[in-house]
Queue: 2 jobs
Job 1
Amino acid sequence: MNNVEKLDKEINSLLSEKENITLLQIGANDGIDYDPIHDIVMEKEKIFCYFVEPQKETFQRLIENYRTISKRSVFINNAIFEENNEVKLFKNDNGISAHSSLLLRTNRTTENFNENSYEIVNGVTIETLLNENNISNIDVVVIDCEGYDCNIVKQILKTTETPSVIFFESPHPQPNDDRLNVVMTGPDALEDVISTLKENFYKTEILTEGIMAIKYKDNNVH
């Protein structure tokens, strides 16, 4: 089962139990490219969406691409970071449109983030994001933040929010890259966040291009 099929299955399960659900997507890009939830949120009218995307030009395309569901959407032009401050968002030199990262890294053939090519964006913590936008009772979180995902998951777990489903991209930067000095990345980060998810009563499943964490309904189950 691929990422989209698994997400669709879990969202359908939630919709069978609840009249409406709330979805938070962090790193929404333009809502189309490399997006596992576009078709799902377009088709299911009972999903209320918060879309978070830091890139200014991409953010405008995101709004346009979801204009038909704007009445059940909120668009937020922020990056999720360690603190509330402006931050550099590095661009990909390999020509992939709207591909950026808070982390400098070179790993796969599609990734070469350049320290001299960046956009200054507004960074906020998860706690600030939730408070400033009155976001609560989140059912589903989808994260694609180019190496920063594990950090964001751990921030979420420190809040009062306990989403039923968290889907995030597998960390893939080189763990020995000395430029990765902002957060822990790579296999060690994944092992650490899976352990933290387990402590918070989530079971995890490694999919083709991401990790699915599902909250146990009975917190006594591991």
Job 2
Amino acid sequence: MSALTETDPTGAGFSPEGLARIAPWMDRLVDEGRLAGLSVTVARRGRFAFARACGQADLARATPFTLDTVTRIYSMTKPLTSVAVMQLYEQGLFQLDDPVSRVLPEFAEMRVAVGGNRAKLETEPARRAITVRDLLTHTAGLTYGFMEATLVDAQYREHGVDYLAREGTLAEMTARVAKLPLLAQPGSAWNYSVATDVLGQFVAALSGRPFADYLREAVIEPLGMIDTDFFVRPELMPRFCATYAYDRARQLRLFDDSVETAFAKPPAIASGGGGLVSTAADYQRFCRMILNRGTLDGTRLLGRKTVELMLSNHLPGDLAAMGTPRFAETSYTGIGFGLGFSVMLDPARAQILGTPGEVAWGGLASTAFWIDPAEDLSVVLMTQLVPSSALPIRRELRVLTYAALAG
């Protein structure tokens, strides 16, 4: 694929006039103070059709947001971890319907919350074991402490379940999760969760290597993702951005500094669910590998049929039917879930432009990507605003991009 600065809308099958609408949309977001800065890269048919950045990576230091700005991608880490899991699957080390307790015995004999209160939670035994597929599809019954919606996520907070914590180990945090009750019976509901972090420990236990080392050596480095890691290397710090949130007046306030940040040194725990930093160019390389069914620049990470399995919907219906009608700013009617990605099932029911079979996900700081195999298209949005539900920019960018397709 050509460099980010070399774009060819017509050769990529886009209307140049249509794609040109993205730039003023970006500028408005910055000029109106809704975002400090952002970048958008659109690739199709092996070439970039659009690549632009605007605004600031750090408002206090007046650092421009550029195409090579290093951002916290948070949950966009999950698809890379899922690739690592499926590499081990291809080695015949497990089956998707295997109980995860065969590798992580702490998950045997799980219990499920059925009522009670914070003082005394009522539970019942899990009707079946948590499988590897359950973890990959967020149907294991796990949750996140930050959800603040149930008695179970309250227990996550009380017991310090946080894979971005700067002390402890991946194994210790995972053991802590296994001691807590499940939110739902395995396989019965979709709940966004620490499941992919648990898969990081699964990879470590099955491979016999620290998870961070495995992900770097088996996924990140073979893909040539040179600026992607669980921390920002010293030479990359000048390109690292600040993260922002809104105050009560809807003005941008600093959430995490670009210099005084925990991401400046290796973490105690490598979070497979949300620990990576990356760049637009790096993540487009990951997207291209998926579009190429597991290979990039002559290096094969996964087999073609494995990627096809990952991109398939593994739920009995859509996410709304599995108990999640909406997550962040996005409706989940017409959206399914594969092995590490959301999967578009029906654009009409989802009420958004798209293609059946398209996969996507995003991160806490409003980063996002989607991959459309039918259109040979990948789009990466990089910015740093938490939470991702603060603005509907992902949906807006989808409309702008798909409306520009010409051939």
